[in-house]
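To close the section, here is one more complete example, presented without commentary so you can practise reading it yourself. The ligand is magnesium ion.
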Amino acid sequence: MRFLWNMAYRGVFYLGVYVNAWEGPKTYSLKQLKLNPKDFNARIADVALKLQKHGYDAYIVGGSIRDLLLRDGVVPKDFDIVTSALPQQIKKCFSRSRIIGKRFRIVHVPVGREVVEVCTFRGATPWLSWCFSDRYRNNIYGSIEQDVWRRDFSCNALYYDVKNANVVDFTGGVQDIKNKKLAVIGTCKARFKDDPVRMLRALRFLAKTNFRMDSSCQEEIKRQRRWLRQVSKDRLLLELTKLFNQGHAYASFKALVDYDYLGTLFSGYERLGIKIENYQQLFKSVFHAIDLKYQRNQRLSSSFLFAALLWPIFDTHANKLNKKTTYSVKKVIYRVLKFESRYVAIPGKLQEAIRDLWMLQFLLETKEKPFSEDRYRQPRFQVGYELFCLRAKHNEVLAEKAIMWQSQFESANTNHLSGQTDE
Ligand code: ATP
Ligand code: MG
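Output:
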């Protein structure tokens, strides 16, 4: 049935191309694009080749080709593969692979230390599809001619055929990348309504690539921001983490502020009427520090990111307290995290870590006596201390405290190291 439907769709599509009703796909050789097969991770390319050897269509797709064509130092970190093989068929080709995902069923194929995501071509949504659940509609499979229209932006809809070493472009993505244009596939309103996460993705790509976007689409992103509140909390957590975890955290933050997304995702910003300008310096330092970690290949701790992102909300509430005590501060933290996890999932373990980081800010501000030496060496203490130092950069009172803690912090680590060499 699926095969017949795909063939019929393909037939109509190429008939349309033949009679010039619409443009067909363009195929570029790697040479035309000034790319080299070596630009693609060889082991990942092998996954696509293996699928092709089993008789399936398989392509490397998505952000990796976009990033390679950008050529401004953005090195692709993840490669996605799309194929005509169904999840069960993919699984049969790779012995250690696993089918995962609720919203989209995808297959994780381990390649050395990495895991490659292999998806099946999504199909066009059939008539009466609104009668079915989202899960059903998201898992209708099709052919490349259908899959392309389900993708978000033209720059993300380029398919690299490993065997023939060429890139297939149905939507003018290559030209859009050259023109630095972020173009939605289809109409903005319909595509954003269909999946509001695409608005957040648009902000991510605008921040990452410095592309421009149609002003009507930009308006739509601003106007319809509240649609995001209907999206699954877990997806928002994932997208938000990606936004800050790819080396352009400050630009992403600015995009969130410019498009009024901060208050949409974390309603405390709106409710308390927090003025971002008052925290601008802190955010600048925090996000530059995060970007530096990315450049140095260091792991970004989500607790550090969220503790900083929600800091103004916690700070505003805490400043309203008549007396700051361990008990009253803990109560504020608990309330803030409860409210702010309304639209974006903040899982229990992450909440616990944020709680520790905020509590530590309070202790570092008020405590007179030193901590135990072990405490200084705890990774969470070090993360909390890093946040404190960033806050202290713009606050003289905190700066004095930071200097005081610095000497104790250093001597604890020196004692530890000398203890290790003595052994
Ligand atoms: P990154 O470099 O951050 O990985 P990416 O474009 O590869 O960016 P992914 O989240 O890895 O983003 O998604 C892979 C591809 O899947 C995208 O390039 C896009 O074609 C498609 N895609 C992902 N999310 C959506 C969505 N919400 N709507 C439509 N297409 C999507
Ligand atoms: Mg990707």
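Once you have examined the tokens, check your reading against these statements. The CA atoms of residues 149 and 185 lie 7 Å apart. The chain is about 55% helix and 10% strand.
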